[in-house]
Amino acid sequence: MSHQENLTYYVAQFVDELVRSGIKDVVISPGSRSTPLSLTFAEHTSIRHWVNLDERSAAFFALGMAKEQKRPVALVCTSGTATANYYPAIIEAFYSRVPLVVLTADRPHELRDVGAPQAIDQIKMYGDYVKWFHEMALPDKSEAMLNYARSMASRAVSTAHQGNPGPVQLNFPLREPLVPDFSLPNIWESSTKDVYLPYFSGKRTLYENKLKMILSQLKDGKQGLLVCGPQTDIRFRESIAQLADKWNIPVLADPLSQLRTGRHSKELIIEGYDTILKSEKVRKQLKPDFIIRFGAMPVSKPYRFFIEENPHMLHFVVEAYEGFREPTLKNTQYIYSDPVEFCTQSVQQSSSIEMDPDWTDKWVKMNDMIKHKWIEGDELTEGHTVSIINQVYQDNHLLFVGNSMPIRDVDTFFTTIDREGLILGNRGANGIDGTVSSAVGAAAHGKKVTLLLGDLTFFHDLNGLHIAKQYGIDLTIVLINNNGGGIFSFLPQAKESSNHFEVLFGTPLDLEFNHVITMYGGHHEKVESLEQLKESLNHAYQDGGLQVLEVQTDRRENVEWHRKQWDHIEKHALDILGES
Fold it and tell me: What is the dihedral of CA 409, 410, 414, 416, to 10 degrees?
């Protein structure tokens, strides 16, 4: 039996099993050693292959796609440093719990550690940032080895998806010649009709006695809070709204919680919590008896201060599967249960739990005051830019948010709306790399996506625009250009390192982005008023293609404007709380 036959059947069986296990998209980074995988994916009629020339961009593109589609996406690259360029996105996928199946081609064993080109040590190269690593056997057509190939493919998809989702890596040693023969008969044929390693799982619920034990700790607490951090399960909207109504309890909702959009009840959603908690004086007036948190840790730093300043309150974190995400290191009770099920069970079993109406009323009044404040004024500020995005947000739209200042401005200025949609971001490792590529990946299946990001984040991933051009993917980008790292202007080093601040932290780019946008076939427009921004966004959504709306601001003026608003809100919040 020839090498080519072994190669063809082995790789075809592996690829076919990935498809049968639920993989519908593969992102391919071109290269020679990965030829068998790339050609076989391209030949399979039931999977869509996307070619992205830049490995770092490709991995973030797959990440954004997997996040939006809520299912694993496969990645293929050649051997050598190509595999290393996947690393930042794999780290992000691990921490943000996004399923990826990473297939790295490699030199065969005899060409390793002997000075062969493009041969680096790829064994467990992603360390603990993947849920599972496996070194594939060399291709072979025997029945046992074809079953092995299918079993590894099936296991890879289920492992990436099961429990807390995340990336897995399979490393493929491949000998030359590398071109399969697709004229061979029955290369996709399987010995089984179904997925090779099917698995069955159910929703995790608490035993009734465990739930009663938890709820019994809350029966005397009249000043409680529900908190929802980043998560993507839209089923959670209705369930937490019902629990909030049952207990008459405020819900502090992070922008990535998916609670600020949708048609669920929002009467007790407190989206202005970050602004409320910025004031230490206000925080001192708000002493919770307990907090139950769902999802990851919220974006808000003032919320973290709030937790740290209340060490004696009861603190619970609800996670669907085992994990520890509580960076304040506060004494915390972990509840491992499906969040929707926990809310439903709590509604049914907690008839004696109800908050002090005055406590809840104060939170609602402060939140309403803040929402009214953000609709005032007609200045083109970074905050009001978010307010305009909020106003023109359409049903089934998706807002992808860059890190640093944009996500914080969305936290502050994106108020609740009754239109359906998602708000996503890369908040696993909170980096600024790969943001453009992730947003393009989220838009790849036709979702209308608006990307809000700063100039440094845009600069870090300009290559991500290429795949949008290549596949004609619609993406509207709102680019906040304050010529540098705006978030650093809010930090102590802005004053304490004044002699070196601009070079080390401000990092002005002094670039005209219109040139690169034109190169990638996009339309660029500088926005000079809120009305223009509103009109231009609506036109961008109608026209499609790559649309970049650039809003130029001044970092120093932005800091002063924000602090002025916070001081004003602090005064009104203290009045509501009864302290003059």
Answer: -140
